[in-house]
Amino acid sequence: MEVMIILVPLALALGLAGLVGFLWSLKSGQYEDLEGAAWRAIADDDEAVPPAQPEVAPSRS
To answer: How many Cβ atoms are within 10 Å of 31's Cβ, its own excluded?
Structure first.
C-alpha cells in the first residue's frame, strides 16, 4: 500500500501531461485538415527518374 503513495500522483501527472499535450495540439491546428493529409500521403508528385547507366571503364589496348 505504500507504493500507492507514488503511483497515484504519478498516474495523475501523466494523465495531466497527456491532456495538456492534446490541448496544445488542438490549439496549434494539428487536426485542421485531415482530408488533405490523407491525399498528400497517396499523391505521386515525384517524376520517374530513369535508372542510372553504369559507367564503363575505358579499355586499355
So the answer is: 10
- Please list the rounded mean pLDDT of every run of 10 residues in the chain (61 residues): 95 98 94 82 69 71 61
Handedness of CA 25, 30, 34, 38 (dihedral sign): negative
The pTM for the full model equals 0.55
Confidence (pLDDT) at 24: 97
Dig out the grid coordinates for 42 from the structure: 497517396
| Residue 37: strand, helix, or coil | helix
Q: For residue 5, which amino acid is it?
A: I
Task: Extract the C-alpha cell encoding 37.
Answer: 493529409
Q: Which residue is listed with cell 498516474?
A: 11
